[in-house]
């Protein structure tokens, strides 16, 4: 049995392209660096006071609460819609389309969409956003590393080399070579 994974929290908003970069890099490195990556959907407007992603982030919060195994895929699909295909992520039909494209059933997606206005989901997103602020967030993404009973907050998607250093790991660029890759 190997060493226990170290915990990293990634606070992000799909309206932030820099959050997307950090998200993709950390998803690629989570097995290489033996980290437990905790995805923390946050509301950038709660930090920066001007954003249009509230419905999408509430939806991701509901996904996190009820289907956490789908959070990475649904987050990625929302980023693909807004930043790769210039598609909307604010309207319910757009959010449903993203969830379904990510592999969620139509029934699951609709059920979660119905919950985005509930106090439970609203409060969870507010708590997560407040947690990011308590760590010192002034924008997104932030990555919080919990190492040796210390907390390290790194802002931005351009701090991965520093994160690797903190973890005592090797930085191999934004797309690490596949382990046991065949040519």
Automatic annotation (TrEMBL):
Protein name as catalogued: Glutathione S-transferase kappa 1
SUPFAM superfamilies attached to this UniProt entry: Thioredoxin-like
Record's keyword annotation contains Transferase: yes
GO CC, alphabetical: mitochondrion; peroxisome
Single Gene Ontology BP annotation: glutathione metabolic process
Residue ranges annotated for the DSBA-like thioredoxin domain, each copy included: 7-167
Protein EC: 2.5.1.18
Gene (name only): LOC111152081
Catalytic residues identified in the record: 16 (nucleophile)
